[in-house]
Amino acid sequence: MVTNGIQNIHIASMLNFAQHMDEIIICDIGFPIPKGVDYVDLVLKDDVPTVNEVLDEVLACFSVEKVIMAEEGRYYNPSYVDKIQKKFDPCIPFQFITHKEFKMRSQKVKGIIRTGDYTANSNVLLVSADSGKFHREYHG
């Protein structure tokens, strides 16, 4: 039996099937889940769990090479966006796109994890990195 890490079999499976450059979204309670996209609904009650809490657990076992958020988040909840940015190494690029673009991009992601978070525009798109274990003779 697994005794630590992500216990939810659907989330663990989603993360395990994500390969280099695949995208996963952790979203707030109001984010529109596109038809046909694999998703896990974690909502227990208002604001439980939050995007921030789920992100902490995902980052403990998932390699990320890029993060994308909606531009509107910097306007409506700049301190929340700042907390999220601080979770990542400064060398990992952050991209901000419009909420409309974010919703369009969500139609092609590997999976979505829906939280109970009521923080507006707290949605985070993670671009999966390679494991860093690939052998290379040339590192240029």
Element layout with pairings:
Blueprint: H1 9-17, E1 23-27, E2 39-41, H2 51-59, E3 64-70, H3 71-76, H4 78-85, E4 94-97, H5 99-105, E5 111-114, E6 124-128
Description:
With 140 residues, this protein is of the alpha/beta class. The relative contact order is 0.31. It is 28% helix and 20% strand. The termini are far apart. It is globular and about 50 Å long. The protein has a six-stranded mixed beta sheet. The chain is built from five helices and six strands, in the order αββαβααβαββ. It has helices spanning 9-17, 51-59, 71-76, 78-85, 99-105; strands at residues 23-27, 39-41, 64-70, 94-97, 111-114, 124-128. Pfam families: RbsD_FucU. It comes from Faecalicatena acetigenes. Keywords: Carbohydrate metabolism, Cytoplasm, Isomerase. Its EC number is 5.4.99.62. It catalyses: beta-D-ribopyranose = beta-D-ribofuranose.
Gyration radius from CA atoms, angstroms: 15 Å
Order of helices and strands: HEEHEHHEHEE
What number is the mean pLDDT?
Answer: 93
**What is the strand content?**
15-25%
First-residue to last-residue Cα separation: 42 Å
GO molecular function: D-ribose pyranase activity
Catalytic activity: beta-D-ribopyranose = beta-D-ribofuranose
Protein name: D-ribose pyranase
EC number: 5.4.99.62
